[in-house]
Amino acid sequence: MLQDHTWAIVFPGQGSQSVGMLADIALQYPSVQETFEMASNIVQYDLWDMVAHGPKETLDQTRYTQPALLTASYALYRIIQNKCAPLTVKALAGHSLGEYSALVVANALDFEKALVLVSARGFYMQEAVPEGVGAMAAIIGLSDEEVSMLCDEVKDTMQGGVLSPANFNSIGQVVIAGHRELVTAAMLEAKNRGARLATLLPVSVPSHCALMQPAAERLRADLDSITIRMPLLPVISNVSAAFYDDVTTIADGLVQQLYSPVRFVETMQLISRLGIKHVIECGPGKVLSGLIKRIDKSITVYSIGDLASLSAFLAEDDNT
Questions:
Q1: Annotated catalytic sites, by residue?
Q2: pTM of the model
């Protein structure tokens, strides 16, 4: 039974989106399209049509990806909330953008306000760096320390520019971000130093690095204009890899998150230290499930991003 365990719920960020996501679930659960209709009224365009039909190039633009993923994750959470007997949830966390989903589920942010925030966040991020100026790349096979040193050495060699670790995703997998020419140079040097893989990521903006400072300043003004409440469930910050303990730190964390690395490994290590061994990945795709399995094999992860996986999860509940 699902109620026999304590749970953490984690929410994915950009990169988990795909044209047609949640289509099979929406056929069985009308609340999915209801959630997207609510979101469409707020963002003033047909979000479900974009998700259902694309084109991919549009959905992958940061300004559209962010509201689409927040809405998809919230729609999935509403299903498990309605279909399952109450679960004992001891922690919520998100990967980058996914932190907004966690804060909505924890009642720290209203869904409507969060949707406006992430729509603006995506726009600010897109405007902060002209297309082609920045890049992100995944480095696999080097330690966190080796990647950090590599970034510093490439910056010194190229006499300036932005380059830094952006996501500490799993053991031996670090994403870097910054100016495209520095990222490219770092990829070549990573391979020279024994990295198994160094590959550019198909993203439209270089997130979680100093190039996002202008976007962070604009987001701060938006955050100052809305009400943020203390979460009803514990939420782990991307920036500190610790639980938020007051409202001010939530706003600060969401601002700093734009130019600071995502500490996902430490987030999952905290969850494990709390004795939580059952985690739901609540959102499209299975990106976080793969990362979690590489971080801690003792954790059982349920990904519920398609009908088959959602049905299998719900079948474990006596009330389903």
A1: 96, 208
A2: 0.95
